[in-house]
Amino acid sequence: MAVTPLLLVSIAILLTAAGWCITLLFRLRDRQLAVLGAVLGVVAITGTIVVLAPMLSQGLVLTLQAVDIATLGVSVLALVTVMVLSRTLSSSAISSETFYDPATGLPNRASFLNLLERSTRRAERQQPPSLAVLIVGLDRFKLINETLGHAAGDQLLIAVARRLLTCLRPGDVVARTGGDEFGILLHQIKDSSDAIRVAKRVQAVLKTPYGLADQEQPVTASIGIVTDENSYDAGTLIRDAGTAMDRAKAHGRDRYELYDETMHARALALIRLETDLRHAIEHDQLRLYFQPVVSLETGRITGFEALVRWNHPEQGLLQPSHFIPLAEETGLIIPLGWWVLGEACRQMSLWLEQFTDMPELSVSVNLSPKQFQESRLVERVKETIERSGFDFRRLRFEITEGVLMEEVDVSVETINELRALGIQVNIDDFGTGYSSLSYLQQLPIDTLKIDRSFVSDLDVSGQKPQVIQAIVGLARDLGISVVAEGIETQEQSARLKFLKCDEGQGFLYSEPVDGETATRLLKIQCDS
Predict the structure, then answer these.
(1) With a threshold of 0.85, does the pTM exceed it?
(2) CB contact at 8 A, 479 and 450
(3) Angstrom distance (rounded) from CA 357 to CA 460
């Protein structure tokens, strides 16, 4: 039996091709490519059998015939074709995974960036600018994931992707650039007004409710817009469009914002402010101020509301409006809130030691939404007050009605646990949130604080006195006391007293003051 080297080489090459194609069958995720790999493997194996067939003769006796050089050349050429085609298909599958979002089928962030880079290079030669980038962020997408499940969230993303495609003009591109964010690249625009028209169209299309988890779910979007007026590079365009989108979310969501240079400066300032605030909490830069709460009947101080200030080393004393929203956004509100509670309890203990004949004196502390939702809230409150050594009944927590209404049953349970310790619970800024008086019957609260917006117009005729009168009347029926905020004139004070409001606070009596000044106010009252 004679076996030529050329024959062995041919057999080995064909078997190798068969093995490589079958391996491709198991490695590729794409069903069509996997089937093609299987077919190519069968072809290679069949080719091997064809080569061996002439060698079979007379039963078990093998007579190996020389393989014609031309036949071997064709076999090798077929093998090379199979391997090149298979590698090309494999690379295509990898490329698809690299540049396209598997959930929506849209280009992903990397692909969007590549397209934008090529477009900006072409746009550099065009004047006026002809590009715009929109970053579309879905509002409250995290809430949908948490309440309806991630499957519903994925379903929503797919539906949003389809709707966005209907908003584009020929040549425009839409991509998924993040978890709940989409990027749109607009070509051939005359000015920013073209981009704004697209943004409005996108918002209108996305607002139609989606069928998710057997219910109709409305969804809105915040959109940031930037044009290439300053010949930006691709990365800068995406960054600035994202900054504009963040601005739209910060201003109430369901809107668009056109980027301007001040936004970037503001974003950098916020990043620095966040760093400074972390440092302030850790290095004793916070200060606690106290605004008196007075009895409208007697005019005497019955308590204080604790209000935080930040003694910034460069910017001086900052009001809460400058840093509380940032603290809430970053989560710093939690350590800040616990610092406020601890400092308020410490100061209250000092006052109770000094002024023993003021049994009605209390201190009010604001609880942020994140604090109120903490699982160890009641336990931590108890630990903080016990360390200060003062009576739990001297503490009032102020919580906005919107927070209480999010999950009424959970809120009722938490409030009951706090009140079991002796702590009083107030609804702050009442009338600005849900404004439903019927909810008061469900919430075991002690005091309503009427928002200053209802007090400010008491100097003039209108509907506000009737609203306050209704609130006070219902509160009295439920055994709840009423405090009015923002009292600035004697007329407001007199009318609130006439309406049977119990207590008030505002600049008429005193602006927020530091602990030393608050102590002097109490001493004056005790001496009078």
Answers:
(1) no
(2) no
(3) 40
